[in-house]
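Case study 2.
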Amino acid sequence: MNDKYQPDVVVEHNDITYLIETAKGSGRSYEAYARMAGISSAAMSKIRSGKYRPSPETLRKLSSDKANPQGGVTYEDFMKSLGYAGESESDADQHSDTLSQYEKEITSQIYTALFEKEILSKKVNDDYDRRMYDLEIKLIDRPVESWFFSYLYFSPVRRSDPGLLYKELGKIMTADLGGGKVTIVLNDPQVFEMFKTYERKLSFRGELSLLMYDMDLKMFTGEYYLANAVEGDVSREIYLS
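Prediction:
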């Protein structure tokens, strides 16, 4: 159908994923690069996925002589790719703290909403791919067994920029959900409203929704589905807002 939408994934040369791959080089693994830089493999995975905006301190580690970045990648390159250009390091560090708090708030609100809506869940599974998702919840007596959450934070420099969501959708729509559901949580009301155009219209076949989080109100304020596992079948839909 002509109204189906399939977003493209475009990796720019100043993209953090591209820079990490270049800095790693062809002769070592991401784990080895992380170890040499003095950061955890989990942190490296989240940076590569674009789901975590590292602090300037972490970027200094990745660009240090000890880390031995390849391809001429510098600290300034990393800073520019993440929108830190023009910010003081103190402002950038404050932004990193805001992101960390944002992720904690969302996780807490998810569990609160599950409790309030009497949606029973099992212990969080720690074996999922953290490069793709920030949280997985196992549901009990629901048509969807696994519920994956991806957190997107729109900083002041990325405000109302749909590119971040386009990229995240591109990754998710190439993944196998195994019958589960994915919810992308975001904090930008303009982008949230913009994508309502594609409500239940994506060509992807899987349970996929957007969930709006208001950082001032500290609550979820809206949710809608972009796609269902079976076109036109809404019987597996579950909402937190």
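Confidence is low (pLDDT under 50) at residues 1-14.
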